[in-house]
Design brief:
59% of the residues lie in helices and 0% in strands. By secondary structure, it is an all-alpha fold.
């Protein structure tokens, strides 16, 4: 197993343990049996099939289009390589996520992520099975790996998942830091650069009129900076009381996973 995969798995399990100890990993408020089904199936399918498949196909397409360019970017400066990944992976994921809240058929693919009435490490990969298959950032990443960014991508994905895991978990790493007055200027910068539990839980809030919830923004994954840059940021340093989708009828686990082939 590759070192970066081991690192991501260790971070994931560390959050699982933290939630087990502090917030009851297996019994969340509002949890239903269908939530467990959706989370287990979507996480396994993404990890075992979708992500490796799309990265491979992205590299294959790059090899077909640029057969003489394999490894061509490997000698680029480190900052330039990281910049390419932030632009073609993280920024495109921001726009994919943003469009998923604007375009009805895309929202059907993304809605399972918001159907959970709780925040947890469990929901990180919770989406329709076709959501990640179509995500542009994964295809671009496969191409960039072919072009020589394999080593940088390995480190990049560990950092990215560290941030994303932390932003989704209900063990809020930022909450205690907000209480330390002298850290306030530091946190002012941090919360405008990366996704935090406060900014991302606002995106998952259920009621838009609670003063915290903002599911029409805060789309960033690794970098919250994209929300700041493109005008979709809301920062309150608070957390919604309720999570989930607002004003929509419940749907089955099978529809969440397999829409449009299964419709309630």
């Amino acid at each position: 197993m590759k070192p970066e995969i081991i690192a991501v798995l260790v971070i994931f399990l560390a959050y699982c343990v933290a939630e087990f100890v502090r917030t009851d990993l297996f019994h969340k408020n509002g949890q239903q049996r269908k939530d467990v089904v959706v989370e287990v199936v979507s996480t396994l399918v993404l990890s075992v099939f979708t992500q490796p498949f799309v990265l491979f196909c992205g590299g294959l397409l790059a090899a077909f289009a640029l057969p003489e360019q394999q490894g061509a970017l490997a000698t680029w400066p480190l900052l330039a390589q990281v910049g390419l990944l932030l632009f073609f992976d993280d920024m495109t994921q921001y726009w994919w996520h943003r469009m998923s809240h604007k375009v009805k058929w895309l929202y059907e693919l993304h809605r399972p992520h918001h159907d959970a009435e709780y925040m947890s490490i469990r929901i990180v990969y919770r989406n329709n099975l076709f959501y990640y298959l179509l995500m542009p950032g994964l295809w671009f990443s496969g191409a960039l790996i072919y072009l020589g960014l394999v080593k940088v991508y390995a480190a990049y994905i560990v950092v990215k998942m560290l941030v994303i895991f932390g932003a989704h978990s209900d063990v809020r790493w930022d909450e205690g830091l907000y209480r330390i007055r002298w850290l306030s200027p530091v946190m002012w910068i941090v919360e405008r650069v990366i996704s935090t539990p406060a900014t991302h839980s606002a995106h998952h809030g259920r009621h838009i009129d609670d003063g915290v919830t903002y599911y029409k923004g805060n789309y960033g994954n690794l970098l919250f900076f994209w929300d700041v840059l493109f005008g979709t940021a809301k920062i309150t340093r608070r957390y919604p009381d309720k999570f989930g989708v607002e004003n929509l009828e419940p749907v089955t686990a099978s529809r969440q996973l397999l829409w449009p082939f299964i419709r309630d």
